[in-house]
Amino acid sequence: MTDQLSAAERHAASTQLTEIERSNAKLGIILFVVYLAFYGGFVLVNAFQADLMDTVVFAGLNLAVVYGFALIIVAIVMSMVYGLWCKVEPATAGKTAASAADVSLADGSLSDNDGNQS
Amino acid sequence: MIYDPSWSAITIFLMFVGGAVGLSFYLGRRKQSSEEYFAAHGQIPWFVNGIAFAGDYLSAASFLGICGMIAAYGYDGFLYSIGYLAGWIVALFVIAEPMKRLGRFTFADALDAKFNSRGIKAAAGVSTLAVSIFYLIPQMVGAGVLIQPLLGLPHWAGVVMVGIVVIIIVVTAGMVSTTWVQFLKGSLLVVFSAVLVVLVLNQGLTTVTESGETIGPIPSTLLATNRIEDRAVLTPEGEWAEYPELVRLASTLDAGFDVFVVTPTQDSETVLLRRGQTMTTNAAGETLVGGLPLGKGQGERQLRGVGSVTKLPGGVTSTGPLGPIEYLSTLRESEVLLWSKLALKEADGSSTTVYYPKPADGSRIMRPGEHPTFAGIRSGNPLDSLNFLSLMLALFCGTASLPHILIRYYTVKDAAAARKSTIVGITSIGFFYVLTLYLGLGAMTSGALDVTDSNMAAPLLARSISQWLFAIISAIAFTTVLGTVSGLILASSGAVAHDLVGGFLGVELSGSAQVRLAKIAAVVVGGIAIVLGILFKEMNVSYLVGWAFSVAASANLPALVMLLFWKRTTSQGIIASVIVGMVSSLTWIMLSADTYQKVFGWDPADAIAPFSQPGIVTIPLSFATLIVVSLLTKASDK
After folding, report:
1. Is A37 in CB contact (< 8 Å) with chain B?
2. In this structure, what DSSP letter does residue B600 have?
3. Are B279 and B353 in contact (CB under 8 A)?
4. SS in 3 state form for B178-209?
5. Model confidence, pTM
């Protein structure tokens, strides 16, 4: 019963996102959708219009190479943009201390380390 | 090919392994809590964790498999690079921070965060084991493949050595030693691959060909005679008679023969003969190359290294150093030799494999659709297009569902560190994948490729430049296996000790007892991996990794995503989704044409699954199962 409760509490704590966590998650989803469209375009062109990939588009390179490299470079750039735009959680330090305390208490048993994550 | 074990390779290899084992003992010298064994106490710096992501993720399939595929077929292997990297976007933008927030030790922790359900722990624990073991087999097979040229030892010895070294790494200090081994491996792999690419670009492209590689152009009427260029034509017997495009000429240097493939020229009256190679296994089990015993002595032959450019733009014979863009654009306007093979039966019952070159326009090797897996995209058959979409979907969704990758999120202190380490991971992995295209194309034109084993492309490319570089790259390739296998065994041991015994069976264990159980599980899983690595010796390395991605994406991702984004998800929905995703993807794979042909040796036309890659069906099926079961069980879950 205690475990049930603590699990529920832990879930409440972990799913009740702070304003900052929610805004970071939203930013993540927006960037994810943008990249998904970019990746989806590549996959669909390959699947249904493969000959387009032969077209030379830049400096003697064909679309296959340019789009492929772009998918890798854009992934790196978007990940950095996400890192820069994400708000830093001020609760981080407090959370870490709380989890460390939980760990030392919970260590050695399988019962859940519960709820007091801010 | 016959590989001479080189002392430089052995020395560097032993230094690497000694370093990894020594570091593990040093890190494991004090008593460990379960928090430390499974999650390194959340104290790994984010930068180290980011590079360790690369060390964990860039497996033998990436380094050996992708480079080999590009070397043999061109651009197609790069599609895997693109898909494997794109999957990290899902990991960073959707999974990383919640994973860190919800879980503690294992993937099941995160799925179970809301419910404390033994069923979820069991389902997620079993799916972790299934995915990890599928992923383990090709790594172990890769280790065996590598050890032969590196140390001159048989395949099984390589598998056993990797197994033992990895068990030591995992058992000594768990996640701490695993992380540092992966960090070292990730750094070395990326740095030395970059060095190799710089050397490849600096060499540029050359059309130098050895004498005796081609004969002619000769009048095509000569093919009907019994002498060509003063060499006797061997009478085609057995299945040779069915291939008039293959001509065997007696050698003028030894008692063997050379096989040539007839290539048309622009002039319809003449043909060009290009030299191929043959390897025959006779009834006594002996191996013959060009009709002579395999060996390096007098009266013996071995297979030659291959891979060359036959024409460069502007008719030049050498380009000199090239820039990264120039290298690709020049190659696109060149002509290279790609090697195909053909199996045939001799009149005396021996089986012969003929390896023969085919000139290919550079524009063909720089576009997708040459490898059998991807050739369908140009066939116009919608099922082939679906198969391609399915593979690219599995690669995209698979990364963020691999348990051995996900547990790395528990090794850093908070969500911000999880985010930063993923960014470091994406940058280093993305950089490496850009390099794979150059490594593969460099090997394709290096003259060093082994026609029997494309997996050796990257190490052999290094050997064509310097023996020391070969030693370093081979040792790194071996360490690549160590890093990935450690992560997989750690994830499996966590699934057994924490999810199945502790969670599902409800056995209450103290921290130290749990660590002890996890270590025993690591030894057992390591032992199973050794046995499977030996049994699956003949299997294609990258093929099995594809299985692991499909199963992970179908079983794990839908449950994880819905838990995060759909409030009405119930525990029964999650359990059903994991089980349906895992069973349906495995069943589909077993019933696919690829498995019929490569695993069972049956006729692929009899396969029940309409195409080989399951993801496009089984991922939506797993999502649908979760939604339906959650809606049906909503009341009871309250």
Report:
1. no
2. I
3. yes
4. HHHHHHHHHHHHHHHHHHHHHHHHHHCCECCC
5. 0.87
